[in-house]
Amino acid sequence: MGIKVLFIYPNTYGMNMLPPAIAGFSALLKQHGHEVSIFDTTYYAIDYGIDADGTKMERLNVVPYDMGEKGIRLKTSDWKDDWIKLLNDFKPDLIGISSTEDMWELGVLVLEEGREYIKKNNVKVIAGGVFPTFAPEICSQHELVDMICVGEGEHALTDLCSKIENKEDYTDVTNLWIKHNGKVIKKNKMSKPVDVNTLPMIDVDMFEEARLYRPMAGKVYKMFPVETIRGCPYTCRFCNSPDQMAMYKNEAGGGYFRKKNLDLVYKELKFMKENKGVEYNYFWADTFLAMNRKEFDQFCEMYEDIKLPFWMQTRPETVTDYNMKRLKAVGLHRISFGIEHGNEKFRREILDRRWSNKDIIDKLVIPKKYDISFSCNNITGFPKETKKLAMDTVELNREIDATNASISTFMPFHGTPLRKLCESMDLISEDKITKCITGETILNMPQYPPHEIEEIKKCFTMYIKFPRNRWKEIERAEKNDTEGNKIYLELKKEYLEKYMPTADADPHGGLDAWEELEQMENEVCGPGTATRTTGTATNNVSKKT
Q1: Which of 44, 103, 478, 501 has the most CB atoms within 10 Å of its CB?
Q2: C-alpha closest to that of 459 among 436, 503, 435, 490
């Protein structure tokens, strides 16, 4: 018979892909005979103080897009009414809330709205995800939360649901912190990382079809989030990867970084293309090119039959002439590179990113050589940073001259080395919950106060693309006053006209590109293999000095 599991996904990021983790849990639980549903807040008009999509477009970080071109709009119904109706109709035995740190309080808001039903029907609640994993003490303080899952949830959820179904004691389930009468009474050991090659294909059908649509380079496509790698081999200090790897090594005796068998990846891609009408693939990996030459060649050979454009994110140092040329030939449309900061010494000592600016610039010439569009992601507001140091990030991005660039606010998330640094510097308390990276800083640093951080973010892309003789105007536009905002709007209009890439009409490149691609592929792979399509770069604006 199984039990009924209801997930809460507290999200206001409209452009985000559906979460593969929850979709994976659903597939696994259904495989074990359980029934699954979800309450996804993505397209509800919830006033949570975060407009991540709007902020990105306002700051010129992304090519403007309209989800409405696919008929996707915010829901007109009240989320509270829909939530209570779902509870009464579905009648869950277990509620699972999966949350990042910036969305935790929204998740709590949803839980609270269902308090009467949860209490009356004695529904158990489990919290999991990256925030409960690294801040279980905080999450366990909420009265309605009965269990915390620390680490991966696949083994824990299936074991928990089985024991609930069979009315067995579940207090010994690995990875779980168990509460009783409002207090944590047991902290179970962690199980070894799950074998990702034993998991079923993710259950995208648990979400509304609209959640498969995502913007890319100004157009909206039906996309599939593809997992090839779980974890990351790098140790950036603003990320939870170092703590994640250490936690699993020390507590579970296993490494967290794993690679998925590409034969399984191929089956998923093929299925989604043929059965779900997917037109674009979104590779969900922190560093997609964290693979050796053999693995890379296997991927390219596998992807030859897919014939869909795709997006990936990676680090500049993973780029080679060989992999860019070959990826272009099999359908690579767009890359996102993590640059993060432009000062070499700061980047090395504070962020643990050790490549020189020259190396980064030289590497990012290569995708341009093959007409591959790419964006550069940057962060500002780090501890010990100054506005002068932030301008080094501007300078590096001017040298790179990517198709487009973005800058986010540093947020000291729990489970990251820089969180610990912020706490040691008395910049933040241990229990402080962070907010969205597109929002304002929560750090009040005398050498780099919040208003200066916002000024850099406001005009970041203008500093990159406009010639230096316009910088005095841009500097005035930074100020949040009547004159500054007037100048900003004028500069924004000019930026959109002169420097913003145009939306791709056809990410496949078009029929006129086939002959060129066939020649390129034959050079790399040998004759008779070039039946692929590819992307087209959108940035036709040269940087002015």
Answers
A1: 103
A2: 490
Fold classification of 227-498 is: pyruvate-formate lyase- activating enzyme (3.80.30)
Q: What are phi and psi of 124, to 5 degrees?
A: -75, 145
Angle at 539 between CA 537 and CA 541, to 5 degrees: 150
Q: How far apart are CA 121 and CA 109, in angstroms?
A: 19
The angle that helices 450-465 and 387-400 make with each other, rounded to 10 degrees, is 20
Instruction: Please list, in sequence order, all residues whose beta carbon lies within 8 angstroms of the beta carbon of residue 518, skipping any fewer than 6 positions away.
Output: 530
The residue behind tokens 């709590």 is 108
| CB atoms inside a 10 Å sphere around CB 55 | 18
3-state SS assignment for residue 184: strand
Q: What single letter denotes the amino acid at residue 307?
A: K
Instruction: Tell me the domain boundaries of the chain.
Output: 4-187, 227-498
Of 20, 474, 433, which is closest to residue 204 (Cα–Cα)?
Answer: 20
324's tokens: 């860019």
Taking the model in full, what pTM does it have? 0.91
Sign of CA dihedral 346, 350, 352, 353: negative
Give pLDDT tens digits along the chain (545 positions).
899 999 999 998 887 889 999 999 999 999 999 999 999 999 998 877 777 888 889 999 999 999 998 999 989 999 999 999 999 999 999 999 999 999 999 999 999 999 999 999 999 999 999 999 999 999 999 999 999 999 999 999 999 999 999 999 999 999 999 999 999 999 999 999 999 999 999 999 999 999 999 999 999 999 999 999 999 999 999 999 999 999 999 998 888 999 999 999 999 999 999 999 999 999 989 999 999 999 999 999 999 999 999 999 999 999 999 999 999 999 999 999 999 999 999 999 999 999 999 999 999 999 999 999 999 999 999 999 999 999 999 999 999 999 999 999 999 999 999 999 999 999 999 999 998 988 999 999 999 999 999 999 999 999 999 999 999 999 999 999 999 999 999 999 999 999 999 887 667 653 334 345 445 545 544 443 333 222 223 333 333 44
Token digits of residue 229: 């790698």
Q: How big is the CA angle at 37 (ends 35 and 137), to the nearest 5 degrees?
A: 105
One fold for 4-187 and 227-498: no
CATH domain 4-187 topology = Rossmann fold (3.40.50)
Own/partner long-range contacts of 449-453 (Cβ < 8 Å, ≥24 apart): 451/480, 452/387, 453/380, 453/381, 453/387, 453/390, 453/409
